[in-house]
Amino acid sequence: MVQTALDVCNLALGRIGGVQIDAIDETTPAGAYCIVEYPQCRDWLIGKYRWSFAVGVAQLSPLAVTPPDCPRTHAYNPPADIVGAIFDYRTAAQKNAASSLNTEMANGLICCDSPLMFVEYTRRVPENTWPSWFVELARIVFASGLASSVAQNQGLAAALWQTAFGSPQEGLEGGLYGQARNEDSRNAPRREAFAWWDDGALVNARYGWGWLGPGRLEIPFVALPGNWGPPSFINFPDGG
């Protein structure tokens, strides 16, 4: 069972027929490559997709002094362990108890008018929490780099990369990566609507936002921008 970064590196070395290492920073060509390249490979792969096992929710604290170039009242540093995107900014940890927040980015800071902020985002998670299918994906991706830089075998490196991500026509979305996404979606908790109007953009655009309340008529309309109704899903450029 994979427990550490060293375990993943040795799995990758085994895939290319390399000699395993005793420490990730040992003074061998493989060790020198692993200590520099593995953290980047790991973070890139976790951050590439919204893996359910790597989603975290954190409360952020506003900076004691808001920088003068911040366009909002408060400024926040992103979470220290973020490796992907922030998906939601809100006022409480539980989404069904929270209001969404409007934010802007300025010089790497999250700027917002609220003094209270929770974020949902992709975070760095330790290897011993990875599902087996993600371990295999990480193993093959990292083995491709080892094959190229350590083993000097460009043919094997290319073959491993294609195993990981599919053909060039698939745009890094196929292979083991595509299979991992499917597996992740099967294991992810089922998304639920928190209220009758939270059916999703396509459903709401088709039926409107039900201004008659529960038991409403599902009238196919889209509210105009600036109406008393909820926001439209149609983009009206320049307010037209």
* Total domain count: 3
Strand count? 6
Whole-Å distance between the termini? 58 Å
Shape: elongated
Query: What amount of the residues lies in strands?
Result: 5-15%
Discrete helix count: 6
Computed Rg: 23 Å
Helix content: 25-40%
Q: How do the strands of the widest beta sheet line up side by side? A: 1-6-3
**Which stretches of 5+ consecutive residues score pLDDT under 50?**
193-205, 209-240
Question: What's the mean pLDDT score?
Answer: 85
Largest sheet: 3 strands, antiparallel
Broad structural category: alpha+beta
The succession of helices and strands, N to C, reads HHEEEEEEHHHH
Give your account of this protein's structure:
This protein is α+β, with helices and mostly antiparallel strands and 240 residues long. It has three domains: 5-49 and 132-187, no CATH class; 55-123, no CATH class; 196-240, no CATH class. The protein is 33% helix and 14% strand. The protein has six helices and six strands; from the N terminus they run H-H-E-E-E-E-E-E-H-H-H-H. The strands form two sheets. The chain has a three-stranded antiparallel beta sheet with strand order 1-6-3. Strands 2-5-4 form a three-stranded antiparallel beta sheet, with no helix packed on it. The radius of gyration is 23 Å and the shape is elongated. Mean pLDDT is 85; it is low at 193-205 and 209-240.
Topology:
Elements: H1 5-15, H2 29-47, E1 55-60, E2 74-76, E3 82-90, E4 103-106, E5 109-112, E6 117-123, H3 132-149, H4 154-165, H5 175-187, H6 201-207
Antiparallel strand pairs: 1-6, 2-5, 3-6, 4-5
Helix pairs in contact: 1-3, 2-3, 3-4, 3-5, 4-5
